[in-house]
């Protein structure tokens, strides 16, 4: 039977070829009876065994008869592109030529759906087949008849049923209302400022430096003042009235030098003590929130400090 002839390169056994012949006979009988779904099943089995143009074209014809135009064109296209072999029987060439013609004719029966989602992030499927992102928004070839379109986004789902006729092109807008918005971004909180250690309430180091300096100057003034008195006493032993012997001159000079140092030391000590007192009052008033003001004055016979604290 030339219908199921297979070249020698094929691996079908005699038993398999006989099975395929039986399936084709039964398929033709069902087809003539109008039982296209059952006939398609037999033709599929025979084609799975033989995989030749004469079995493939019958699968494509039954698919077209059942309205499965997209799948029918795919099968027929594969049949038309089967490679020619030198020992192919004429029926194979005839089947491939018929497959080419049927492929072109069925193109006129294809319908088109263009799914147009309102917004981004949609997942779209047609009759259970999910579309790739590139296929969303462009015409998708479908079989004529009713189709179920399912759209999903943000955990929500919407379903649309639509019918298209042969050769019809139709846009199908889809939208999921009330989809939850993205959660708000967490508000960044600034770190709480660290508590500053309490400021010291005692006098500053400058105050104590002034006090120590004043004390040292007073001590120096007292010592040099005592030496000045002692040297003057020594000189008085060599003097009568306003007249002094030459031996008393050194003692008088030493007395005057020590007296000058003593006077300067006492003045320095007084200044340092005064400055320390002013600094203490300013620091104390600053910590209590008051504004301290002070200015020094020097008169002919005295000096002092005037201010508000």
From TrEMBL:
The reply on keyword Membrane is yes
- Domain of life according to the entry: Bacteria
The transmembrane residues are 205-230, 258-282
Q: Which UniProt keywords apply?
A: Membrane, Transmembrane, Transmembrane helix
State the name under which the record lists this protein.
Tetratricopeptide repeat protein
Q: Does the keyword Transmembrane apply?
A: yes
The segments labelled Disordered in the record are 178-200
